[in-house]
Amino acid sequence: MxxxxxxxxxxxxxxxxxxxxxxxxxxxxxxxxxxxRKNIPESExxxxxxxxxxxVEFDNVHTYFFTDIGTVKAVDGVxxxxxxxxxxxxxxxxxxxxxxxxxxxxxxxxxxxxxxxxGEIRFNSGxxxxxxxxxxxxxxxxxxxxxMSMIFQEPMTSLxxxxxxxxxxxxxxxxxxxxxxxEEVKARTIEMLKLVGIANSDxxxxxxxxxLSGGMRQRICIAIGLACNPRLIIADEPTTALxxxxxxxxxxxxxxxxxxxxxxxxxxxxxxGVIAEMADYVVVMYAGxxxxxxxxxxxxxxxxxxxxxxxxxxxxxxxxxVDKLYSIPGKVPxxxxxxxxxxxxxxxxxxxxxxxxxxxxxxxxxPTHEVSCYRYADRPEAGWLMGEHLGKEGASER
Length: 398
Ligand SMILES: Nc1ncnc2c1ncn2[C@@H]1O[C@H](COP(=O)(O)OP(=O)(O)OP(=O)(O)O)[C@@H](O)[C@H]1O
Ligand code: SF4
Ligand SMILES: [Mg+2]
What we know:
Layout: H1 14-35, E1 46-47, E2 54-67, E3 70-83, E4 87-91, H2 98-106, E5 114-124, E6 129-131, H3 137-143, E7 148-151, H4 155-158, H5 165-176, H6 182-195, H7 201-205, H8 214-225, E8 232-236, H9 244-261, E9 264-268, H10 272-278, E10 281-286, E11 289-295, H11 296-301, H12 306-313, E12 363-364, E13 370-371, H13 384-390, H14 392-396
Helix pairs in contact: 5-6, 8-9, 12-13
The structure holds adenosine-5'-triphosphate (ATP), iron/sulfur cluster and magnesium ion.
């Protein structure tokens, strides 16, 4: 019973918490035991890509957090792919599972409570294809920073404040080039600093992180991330902490470097402007699931899921007078207790009778454009109807 004698749905007694916690320990203990075995045979984690043109294939991935108040299904059946040489943007509001998706790919989800419990994440490292979900830690350490690398949102937390920039980049360069002499490592570091647009690279080599601006620190992180020509760059909100002009420079830099080393980018952001500028493909997430995906053109010209339409409407447009920016009404459902119907239903302005059924399946609107929404269930070809709701522009592409 909650306050004032009214039953509180979110209330959990300490006895119940203990029971959940014990059950969690049993589940995560079993997974950890399996993972920590010695000499895991390659047959358990080496696999093949469904499409050899992809670098990454997320296939029905479920990553859960086993907490004392219940299981948080942070990523709940996510599927999408990253083609070679392309940029895939992942959008969605705070807490929808963007970071947990990328951390699952790096096997950096907080363990033991965080676990990928189902699905496959296939990663093509160049010589082998790994199912990351089953890959042992020793193998992951070889992949991270080599074949895949990550650029985080806040550069200050990725750099060590007590070491000079030169030492930190040197360390990474030396790690990936064990045969290089000290002088060669330093020369390569300085070359990398120049490559990411740091003018006074000899000076910066001797500086500490706090002596640099936010934009410079992010450039250093990009230099570290790209030190080994990764096949895949995972960038989680790489420019959120920077002002707009620096943001544009950093995005330019990432795009140029990506083309130079011919890698792919998985770009996580809640900024549609960044997506429009960078992405070839867009994945829209809502409450741990992919609700729509397609080429950037399809998503911008013909947004079809009501949530994507809402996102587009909440974006400010230069030169357009509005009294108030549109915001999607309502709240995301509680991640511990997800409903068994469409997760967006309680906020959806386009909800229809069919929407009370179970969670909607995937409907193909084009070979590259997919949406999970009942409005397309009978007439997949009628995607333009939703564009019309947005305005004329949306309908014109079809
Ligand atoms: N270590 C953790 N323990 C428990 N729950 C977690 C943990 N990390 C993340 N979560 C939960 O997983 C869900 C997805 O989180 P995630 O960090 O992926 O969101 P996000 O889409 O990256 O949001 P943001 O835009 O704010 O970065 C959230 O409900 C969050 O509370
Ligand atoms: S399935 Fe129904 S409730 Fe869910 S997004 Fe589509 S129209 Fe809205
Ligand atoms: Mg995040």
